[in-house]
Amino acid sequence: MNIELNSLPMKFSSPEILTLYQALLKQEPLISSFSNVNSLPELVFMISAVCNMRCAYCYADFGTFNKENRKLMSTDTAVAALDFFAENFDTLEVVKISGGEPSLNTDAIESISHNLRNLAEQQRIKAYPHICIISNLFKLESDFVEAVKDYDLSVLASFDGPPNIHNELRLGNDLKGTFEPVYNNIKKLLGETGQPEIIECIYTPIHYKQGWSILDTANYLKSFGINRVNMHFVADFQGFYKRLGNTFFDYANNIRNLQRKYIYQQVINLCNGDSFGLPVLHTLLERLLKGEMTNYCPIGQETLTVDIDGCIYPCCVLIGVDHSCMGNVLKTSSFNKLARKPFTQNAKAQHIICTECDIKSICGACIGDMIEGTDGSLTPFRISCESQIGMYEDFLEGIIWALARESEWKFLVRELGSLSSKAGRTHGCVSCSHFSKELKNIIPSKAQEKSIIYKERLNNSIERLKKMYSI
């Protein structure tokens, strides 16, 4: 679907926000790929080419990945994949298990988890990674529940909000809504294991049409008792947006404001002691402090995917695209370097829209969305662009709001001061006092905004920030 909404680069709405953004952003490019760091931040196992649901926006041809032979990954393939990656990397930081529907293949879940534990004990990898299963939780079998308990697995549950919305978007293979069984299984699993840790919601034009904002939807899901909600958007998979006509365009034109209201409210909530939005705020601050990304999403560099047949891809969205295959764990002991090349060179400099965008240095746009959301070319997708700049703009505006309120500012600094991740990644730690001091230095009062004194102070602060926040 070629959506002609990308005629202008994304710009911040005020010079104050742009100033703060530029001061926080470290200028040196961040170099992070497995070509020079023997650690893989994310390994994804697609253990099932079968699904028990038919979601309206599914990118994977309803879980089959366009494979004629709809099957499950064998335990032999799973073990071979783990051996392959243990030979090529010292550390596997996060292992995600997905599909199709992964809970239909508990043998592979148990095999992956058990063998990862063995690899860590044998010191073939440095540590037992954080393992996350991405499931629709339409069915909840006892062997799946036991695996979650036995191997301390994290579960991310896909759930799209209130019954009338979820039932329109997430259908069973009988084309009936799935809200009731999924809701009940979330509650049951939560009671037995403390999982799911995360609910992932796809915010769509259907939500918008029915009057549910991003903030409304997140607050509704928050009431389930889950610690974290990830709000996402998708490209035009399955012709989803085409069927919605003008509803889609209204939605696309309002995404930025909807995202802004959501993030801004999370900052205010955090200052008032509600840490529900802390993970997304941590992510935004971490991205600002890490520095420049010359490419888009680091697929093929910081994330790799193995499909049911053992083929290695840069991303799950590219499963089945022959020229994207980087090797097969059953047939080779190394990666196809030629297949990696296009994904290590997906530079933003190729697009005039990106080169003129205010957040070009930190944008990690999804390449799958860029391909599917436009005409098949690697072109910026408007919804992703609007969403990303809306998030950063409101986060920075929230910082400015908190600075004017001493008690709220102190609380915000304390909560955001440490960038540690439960997922097992090792990040730098931002000193609370330094974080507070430097932000106060770079926020101008209106009287100082155009003064030479302010410009000198801003430049000095930027240099101190560079040294202080190296991650």
Describe the structure.
- This protein is of the alpha/beta class.
- It has 17 helices and ten strands.
- The protein has an eight-stranded mixed beta sheet, with helices on one face.
- β9 and β10 form a beta hairpin.
- α9 runs parallel beside α14, α9 packs across α15 and α16 runs antiparallel to α17.
Anisotropy-based shape: globular
Number of strands: 10
Pattern of helices and strands: HEEHEHEHEHEHEHHEHHEEHHHHHHH
In what order do the strands lie side by side in the largest sheet?
A: 8-7-5-4-3-1-9-10
Rg: 22 Å
> Which regions are unreliable across 5 or more consecutive residues at pLDDT < 50?
1-7, 27-36, 419-430, 446-451
The percent range for helix content is: 40-55%
Please tally the helical runs, counting DSSP H or I stretches of 4 or more residues: 17
Architecture blueprint of SSEs:
Layout: H1 15-24, E1 39-46, E2 53-55, H2 75-88, E3 91-98, H3 106-121, E4 130-135, H4 142-150, E5 154-158, H5 163-169, E6 170-172, H6 179-193, E7 198-202, H7 205-209, H8 214-222, E8 228-232, H9 246-271, H10 278-290, E9 303-306, E10 312-313, H11 337-344, H12 352-355, H13 367-372, H14 382-403, H15 406-416, H16 432-442, H17 452-468
Parallel strand pairs: 1-3, 1-9, 3-4, 4-5, 5-7, 7-8
Antiparallel strand pairs: 2-6, 9-10
